[in-house]
């Protein structure tokens, strides 16, 4: 009778991002992300982060000594009102196929929790729905969802699913013109804003971040340093900025960090003089006008936050399309009740 092989045993070890680079990449290869960019992503996110080395955990199979899994929490600066918070975003859980079971994944996540309890205030992550039970099991709370809102600017493709092709082709530009005219009239009734495009983070972002009210929501710091690392230095996507200023002034009223996919303009992050009180209707109409002028078919944003943060987007015609859960775990026994303000910039890519 054949004796079954022994059940693998594992240890979780604290990793060093510089020393263990090759080990982590060997686990990622073929298992996590696009192979043509994983090395560049590692060097940017793990080695060049402006807030210190991420919390890295490695899973070792004790019998062979082979490292078979990895997980990480990247450091982020957050705040709540006037209080600074050290946060960690959960990223890059990867386990080699022959070791994929609930036990190893739980061990890696528990290792991150123990490291976080020593060093940071809060962990958060965006797990896929299948992983949600695991996060609940180890003490995370599903506090909110990251909701994608979209506004259609070119309606022909949208109307093709509802009208015959010829009618959609005729009606589309007419509908486009009607909405553009309505938005233009609304802009005339509001404060005048000047829009310009940029390709790099700007020091004016610091003054806007410092002067705008933040409310009581937990949010990431949105200054020039953060934007430069998160967007300008990232090897994963190309980002532009839309700057909004008042006539005769160079000071920022608002900014949007945007990325283009096909004909869609995706707002990845933003901030305005209204801060935690939401984005004004005038700023969003200026965004839509700039997007139309650039030829985009739609504008979207992923956001969660207090009702006042969402209200402006909804009033500007943005409609909820889909949502993803966000799980949060406070360290050192903290369980404060809080509102959360997230955008897709709060992820790792």
UniProtKB/TrEMBL annotation:
This is N-acetyltransferase domain-containing protein. InterPro entries: Acyl_CoA_acyltransferase (IPR016181), GNAT_dom (IPR000182). It comes from Pseudoxanthomonas indica. GO terms for molecular function: acyltransferase activity, transferring groups other than amino-acyl groups. Transmembrane segments: none annotated. Residues 10-164 form the N-acetyltransferase domain. It comes from the Bacteria. PROSITE patterns: GNAT.
């Amino acid at each position: 009778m054949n004796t079954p092989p022994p059940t693998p045993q594992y240890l979780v070890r604290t990793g060093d991002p510089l020393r263990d680079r090759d080990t982590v990449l060997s686990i990622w290869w073929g298992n996590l992300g696009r192979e043509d960019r994983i090395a560049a992503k590692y060097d940017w996110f793990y080695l060049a982060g402006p807030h210190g080395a991420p919390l890295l955990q490695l899973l070792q199979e004790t019998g062979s000594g082979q490292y078979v899994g990895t997980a990480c929490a990247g450091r982020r600066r957050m705040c709540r009102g006037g209080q600074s918070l050290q946060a960690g975003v959960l990223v890059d859980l990867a386990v080699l196929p022959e070791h994929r079971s609930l036990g190893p994944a739980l061990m890696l996540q528990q290792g991150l929790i123990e490291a976080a309890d020593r060093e940071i205030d809060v962990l958060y992550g965006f797990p896929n729905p299948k992983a949600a039970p695991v996060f609940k099991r180890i003490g995370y709370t599903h506090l909110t969802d990251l909701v994608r809102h979209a506004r259609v600017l070119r309606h022909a493709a949208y109307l093709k699913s509802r009208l015959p092709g010829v009618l959609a082709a005729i009606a589309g530009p007419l509908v486009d013109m009607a909405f553009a005219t309505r938005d233009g009239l609304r802009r005339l009734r509001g404060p005048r804003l000047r829009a310009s495009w940029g390709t790099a983070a700007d020091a004016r972002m610091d003054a806007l971040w410092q002067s705008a009210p933040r409310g009581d929501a937990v949010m990431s710091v949105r200054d020039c340093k953060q934007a430069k690392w998160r967007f300008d230095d990232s090897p994963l996507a190309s980002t532009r900025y839309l700057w909004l200023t008042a006539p005769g002034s160079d000071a920022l009223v608002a900014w949007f960090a945007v990325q283009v996919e096909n004909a869609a303009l995706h707002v990845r992050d933003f901030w305005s003089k209204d801060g935690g009180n939401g984005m004004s209707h005038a700023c969003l109409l200026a965004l839509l006008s700039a997007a139309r002028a650039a030829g985009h078919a739609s504008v979207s944003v992923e956001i969660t936050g207090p009702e006042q943060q969402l209200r402006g987007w909804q009033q500007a015609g943005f409609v909820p399309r889909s949502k993803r859960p966000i799980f949060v775990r406070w360290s050192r026994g903290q369980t404060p009740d809080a509102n959360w303000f997230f955008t897709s910039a709060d992820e790792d890519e």
